[in-house]
Amino acid sequence: MPVLRTPDECFKDLPGYPFAPQYLTIDDDRFGALRMHYVDEGPAAAAPVLLLHGHPTWSYLYRHVIAELVSAGHRVVAPDLIGYGRSDKLSDRQDYSMANHLRWLAALVRGLDLTEVTVVCQDWGGPLGLGVLTNDPARFARVVVANTILHTSDPTLAGRLDWAVHGVEDEPRVVVQEALLDYIHASARYRIPPSVLVAGATVTEVPPAVLAAYDAPFPDESYTAGMRQMPLLVPLTRSDPAAAINRKTTEFMRTWRKPFVTAFSDGDPSTRGWAEVFQEFVPGAHGRDHVTIEGAGHFLQEDRAAEFAHLIDTVARIP
């Protein structure tokens, strides 16, 4: 299948993003050589902080967080998922699956030989980052989750999430929040640019040049297959392949005793309730100083970057 690569000129003079591009080539059995972009800043000898984005953003989302963490002495690695940012883009939507995203992200972690990792998971960075951790836990030391989910459609989630996704015990039925269905349907039916989604999910006013930077990886519609497909990968039923992956991750995280801290914002209904769910079932979350970041929407990296970076810095220093 054709692999597309966004021209370098699309990324010139992006505000607040001076980082030199780094690339790792992933040898994929089906798609051949895929080039995955990542930011790698700070002292190479320091334990890495791995910043994972979701939909429809890329490592640009973390630009202020990267600067803060590097100033605090951390090595920071911030990849772009395949299909996003400066990474390669498959042109067929059907080639994007949660299993493929997990393979590609795991290949980056192994390829860079990251160890003693503090992983920061937001949006799709949650199920993907925790999924990679589940399959290679020895590389990871700490976890920060922020405005993310781990959907399994389990009936025990009933009444716990603002955007409900749960099965009904002993019945072949599910309950799904209307807003979530509207979001998934709109993403599939309309060509909504990333900038519109970012502007709609932040509390502060995002400057036009910054919004344009979120659109930069997609100079035309042919580059957007991965972005268009991602919302459709949200598992809404117990039989969804991604739900099975997330169940495996959930079961493993029930054994995770290393530091695990939630940093959800107060202005994100799409993930509201998940902080408390994580705090309950992950042993490493018990007794931690969890944070609610006030005055922020879904993309808290835009709304409260300095506060979020301070929290990450604190967690990354836990022995």
How is this structure best summarized?
The protein is of the alpha/beta class and 319 residues long.
What pattern of helices and strands is seen along the backbone? EEEEHEEHEHEEEHHHHHEHEHH
- As a percent range, the share of strand residues is 15-25%
What low-confidence regions span 5 or more consecutive residues with pLDDT below 50?
none
- What is the total tally of β strands? 12
Number of helices: 11
What order do the strands of the largest sheet run in, or round the barrel if closed?
2-3-5-4-7-8-11-12
Distance between the termini: 46 Å
CATH architecture: 3-Layer(aba) Sandwich
General shape? globular
| Biggest sheet details | 8 strands, mixed
**Mean pLDDT reading:** 97
- Tell me roughly what share of residues is in helical segments: 25-40%
Number of self-contained structural domains: 1
Radius of gyration (CA) equals 18 Å
Q: CATH superfamily, please?
A: Alpha/Beta hydrolase fold, catalytic domain
> Could you say what the CATH topology is called?
Rossmann fold
CATH class value: Alpha Beta
Indicate the structural class.
alpha/beta
What does this 3D model show about the protein?
Helix content is 32%, strand content 21%. It is an alpha/beta fold. It has a single domain, classed as Alpha/Beta hydrolase fold, catalytic domain (Rossmann fold).
